[in-house]
Amino acid sequence: MRIRTKLTLGAILPVGLFLLVAATVLYTGHQVGRVEKKVHVVNEIRQNASSLNQVTHYYLLYHEERPRAQLEQLQASLAALVSRVEPDDRGEEAIMSRLRQNHDSVTLLLSTLQGSWKGKKDGLMPAGALEDRLTGQLLERIGEISADAGRLEQLADEKWAAAQKRANLLVLFLTGIFSALVLLISLTIMWRTSTAISKLQKGTRIIAEGDLDYEIPFTAHDELSQLSEAFNKMAAELKKSYAALQQEVLVRTQAEKAIEKYAAKLEVSNRELQDFAFVASHDLQEPLRKIQAFGDQLKSDHAGSLDAEGLDYLDRMQKAAVRMQALIQSLLNYSRVTTKAQPFSQIDLAAVAREAVGDLEASIKETGGRVEIGDLAGIDADSTQMRQLFQNLIGNALKFHGDEKPVIRVYGEPIQNPGPKKGASRDGTYRIFVEDNGIGFDEKYLDRIFTPFQRLHGRGTYEGTGIGLAICRKIVERHGGTITAKSIAGKGSTFIVTLPAKQPKGGTE
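^ thats the sequence. predicted structure below, dont judge the formating
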């Protein structure tokens, strides 16, 4: 049974008992009132009988008209009062029967006496023993009426007192029963509820201490039992979740160990890359410089002794050495993105872009191009690498131009926040656009152009080593950003760089 139902029954039952007690009190009150009314009537009968006795004596003494009229009125009133009394037992019934008989006898004797007095007055009947006998009988009947009225009054008073006592006892008894039942119902509901709550508290404490196998016992089918069942289900789900979490922790621990192992290998690889960069910058370039120097000396001192084919071979050798030196320098630049990185700091992108344009002034004049620098904000970045990023992107735009003079637009924008603060960064990122009107490319080669040494055109068409965009991607990834491009062959390209506006304090990568 639900707690609400128990409480409802606990409220309805006392109300019902109260109504029963009230109905009983009203009934007993009605009975007492009926007896009380009867007592009033009996009291009037006794008073009437007393008055009848007095008026009769007065009338027998003086034979006056006024007491005679009073006597008749008292006789009629007595008859009416007697008719209003309903006897409750044989004793009352006998008394009422005698009262009626005596009332009738008094009426007859008065009538006879009055006739005797009238005959005596007219001289028709002499006074004598008959009158005395009638007077004695009349007084005797009047006395019996007074005595019966007294006895009837005594019986009525006794019954009224008994009815009052019964009513009081019944009210006290029902009030006691009502109070006992209300107390019993309240204690039962309180005991059952407190017991269930104690079990629930104990169970939740045990579950909270980590014993997820514990089940809260419940036998009833109320809200507390439903809550206990819900706690048991929750504990079972927590047990499953805990097991899954342990498994996940194990997997993550293994993954962290693998990451640590990979990081160690990566650190070794970075050291090897740094060693390679050192070798490339010193050991590899030294033979190339000697090849170039001896080639120049051979060409200047012995060009006359070489035929056309020999000069062609010498020229090819020198060009190959130059290309080799360019490749080595490009690899050095690629490796230095991480090995020679500088800490991040707040920089002005517009100023850095203008510096990059200044570095490319010769190429701009050679191609007749124009570079427009729009709105660029300040972000946390490595100033040197941002300058190299702009140089590579703008340099590519100047290199890969069509018949028209190159026009490059450089601008940026924050990712707008739909909130109330206009222009605020939604997730702390900033986008840089480098847009040109060059030859463009087919977007199916988008991933290829950011791979080292990948070229979409031959060396005879456009110079370069094919590592410039790979360096751009490495710089952007080091800053925690992304780089992509949109292009249509023959209609220009737009390179899009997305970078965090703020870097972790003191971070370098």
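Residues 417-426 have pLDDT under 50 and may be disordered.
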